[in-house]
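Ticket 4471: requesting a sanity check on a complex prediction with iron/sulfur cluster. Repro inputs:
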Amino acid sequence: MLRLEPFAFAKPQTTDEALALLARHGAKAKLIAGGTDLLPNLKHGLYEPEVVIALSDLAELRGVAVNGAGELEIGAMTTLEEVERAALVRARAPGLAQAAAAVAGPTQRTMGTLGGNVCLDTRCVWINQSHFWRQSLGFCLKKDGTVCHVVKGGKSCVAAASNDTATLLVALRARLTIRSAAATREVAIADFYKADGAMNLRLAPDELLTRITVPAPAPQGTWSGYAKLRPRASIDFPRLSVGVAWTTQQDGTFADATVVVSAIAATPRVIAGIGELLRGRRPDDLAALLAAGEKARSVVTPLTNIDGDPQWRRAMVPVFVKRSFLAGARGGA
Ligand SMILES: Cc1cc2nc3c(=O)[nH]c(=O)nc-3n(C[C@H](O)[C@H](O)[C@H](O)COP(=O)(O)OP(=O)(O)OC[C@H]3O[C@@H](n4cnc5c(N)ncnc54)[C@H](O)[C@@H]3O)c2cc1C
Ligand code: SF4
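Returned structure tokens:
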């Protein structure tokens, strides 16, 4: 049985109180939202915080609304189940409802939050293991060691971004509101992630993600869809994560389109040139969708950082690009 090491526990009642605690403890603190990823990681000894700050009482960080500009605003502490079921999300960003519904299983989605998913740590078959297991291999670059078991001789960690909603939020060009006691900043979600599996978030130790903003649908409507490859549809992390978003012209053909592929490297990857490739083609043109998928396949290189044969995962890219577009066209979660 894996045990938690001792730590102090704080349960602030307001966001300002939480920010003051973060300002005081900085890198010695760890935030807990739903705890569905943090707790296993604590038990595996991946983090060693002196204090854990719970966000669960911050009602002001919960809920889905539409702002004056017609954009979706979702509080970081909104659970994945709430995101999946919210009528506003299903109507305006159905792909996000699909991505939220694809995270883990129902139990984790009841506890797990959108903010926790956006800030999810990267994953690797060599790191998501017990301390004892990792110690027997001499640890690795991400924690306590000096080597990478995925890229022999590698100097940086290539653990994979494995958060389903992040893939789709990048496709939708979502923005994140990040607060510290001293300042509030807004960042495009694509710029929030960096290519370092050891720590892939541009988030300072005293900062908290408070809100996710999804831009308004374009006049003709922004469509979005999500599909993932995983061993068991009931619970598993993605072996491949694909999110798409697109707008249409008056005749129903593509005006623009974005394909994002994740669960490959430390950041979700926007595939260049998809808009040009699909413009003028119909969203139900399977040959066009597969061509977009083929373009994505040609530029991604799955590694042995997560389970599943890398060549097979790569071969599946066109299939899941096509499925994402079809899921978006169908709508619903
Ligand atoms: C069996 C199992 C299967 C899973 N399958 C999947 C899956 O298929 N796809 C997937 O994406 N995830 C999966 N997960 C991981 C997890 O359940 C989800 O990612 C969930 O959304 C995490 O949210 P949380 O609120 O529980 O985050 P927590 O575990 O509380 O936190 C996760 C991380 O985010 C940080 N954090 C949380 N909130 C904030 C905030 N507001 N500001 C700054 N930092 C913050 C925490 O400090 C921590 O580092 C799985 C977990 C389990 C146990
Ligand atoms: S990619 Fe390498 S350094 Fe990163 S967690 Fe895996 S084995 Fe460790």
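Notes from triage: The domain at 60-119+160-214 is CATH 3.30.465.10 (Uridine Diphospho-n-acetylenolpyruvylglucosamine Reductase; domain 3). Leaving this open until the requester confirms.
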